[in-house]
Hints:
The complex is a heterodimer. By secondary structure, chain A is mainly beta. Chain A contains no helices and 11 strands. Helices cover 0% and strands 51% of the residues of chain A. In chain A, the strands form 2 sheets. In chain A, strands 2, 4, 5, 6, 9, 10 and 11 form a 7-stranded mixed sheet that branches. Chain A has a 4-stranded antiparallel sheet with strand order 1-3-8-7, with no helix packed on it. In chain A, strand 4 (31-38) and strand 5 form a beta hairpin. Helix content of chain B is 0%, strand content 52%. Chain B contains no helices and 12 strands. In chain B, strands 2, 5, 6, 10, 11 and 12 form a 6-stranded mixed sheet that branches. Chain B has a 4-stranded antiparallel sheet with strand order 3-9-8-7, with no helix packed on it. In chain B, strands 1-4 form a two-stranded antiparallel ribbon. In chain B, a hairpin with a 5-residue loop joins strand 7 (56-58) and strand 8. The model of chain B has no long low-confidence stretch (mean pLDDT 91).
Amino acid sequence: NAGVTQTPKFQVLKTGQSMTLQCAQDMNHEYMSWYRQDPGMGLRLIHYSVGAGITDQGEVPNGYNVSRSTTEDFPLRLLSAAPSQTSVYFCASSARGRSGNTIYFGEGSWLTVV
Amino acid sequence: AQSVTQPDIHITVSEGASLELRCNYSYGATPYLFWYVQSPGQGLQLLLKYFSGDTLVQGIKGFEAEFKRSQSSFNLRKPSVHWSDAAEYFCAVASGGYQKVTFGTGTKLQVIP
Lengths: 114, 113
């Protein structure tokens, strides 16, 4: 069981370049989300999805785009990379249900924009 | 809007000493609460979670947390810290549908011999 898989793990971009962070989960979870982690700021929600075809903005959505064409995949696109987007990115997924379902995180993607 | 406050940015304890990490939350309804741990260069590992029932929650690695509604707190405790517990700890609160999880800013734990 692979859980939540993120690729790439490390990436260096030049300012203005675009790229896509991939996220896939094999647990048939309805909910998926992207966070960025910066020193002293914890994890902040970028975008989230409650199911295929449904996405919404989180706390810090500017400069990022998402889509959810399948239940398994939730890619995060950086449209025109800026140094302020240097961060560690985490994808997460969880199942819908009445009980306190566990939220599963990927291993993270370290992105540097120069 | 929901929020989480971890007032201690950095804590140092001696190996074998007890530990308490503080977490205060703000949420209108009954919250879903979590503690995660992150080692350097790694992802997040769930230590424990609370969503209903017994307010004292047991987790992995000997950790426990107590939900106190009157104080809006969910503090993490461990009776005897091991050197391998050195990491960053995050408290989080989630809405009922799990669409959004709000994290605290984290507490870095240093363990000295």
